[in-house]
Amino acid sequence: MKKYITLLFVSLFALTACEEDLVIYDVENGQAIATITNGSQQTLPVPDTGDTAIIEVGVTTVSDVDRSISISIDQTQTTAQPDEYSIDQSTLVIPAGSFVGQIEIDANFSAIPETGITSLVINVDDVAGADALEGTLTHTINFFRFCPFEGDATFLGDYQLETVTLGIFDTPTLTDGVVTISQGATVADRRFSVAAYPAFGAFTPFQFSFSLICGEIVVSQVEGINVGCGGANGIAPTTATISTYDSADDSELIINFIDDYRDQCGWGAPEVQIRLTKI
């Protein structure tokens, strides 16, 4: 997941310093320019074992001593909470004799929200002995939870939807039949279009969305499914029966969720179960 970009630099010729404590930043007396070399942003899927993002900071000249890197968090743009990440302070340096330093940011799986994306925006404020290349010293890291699928499993394509447990009024909440599962905002997110309450008529389909997160299926809350009692009913994830999946087998998914979670119809917001079988 780490990208390495090779910088082209002019040839350097060694000069001998007259004083032992002289710091030589540019042995050709040219300007030392600092920039972030691996782009302005990256997306980091974080498994339950955690992961590390790298920000590469490069300069156009070498130094005979370590160059310190000063950074700050852009609080106006950052949505990640402080416990979602930690910055390895020992990596805030470009080592002596090197053109590139690698800042390490460790992501904390347990603190990252169960679904969705959060962002950490880091400004590189200063690199000792170098001038910043304008507009290149801000980097965004997008965090989300995800454990890679195994084998040929993709959890995409056509599935047969079957109601296992009924919803309000002892009827299916979703329409049985073939649905097409596609990827959502991240590689962990899935969605399909389906109409609600087929027993009561033909209604406009809505997006049923869920996330596959390290063995657990998390259903996204939907405020309105285009039909309901005194307003559009909503569905929500359940905490009673957690849905799970096998990361190496996408042949079947069994998903539990809450029908009419606000209980607008007075049926007690029942837990519904559906089965999706790959065609």
UniProtKB/TrEMBL annotation:
Keywords: Signal
Signal peptide range in chain numbering: 1-19
Presence of keyword Signal: yes
The protein's name in its UniProt record: Calx-beta domain-containing protein
Top-level taxonomy: Bacteria, Pseudomonadati, Bacteroidota, Flavobacteriia, Flavobacteriales
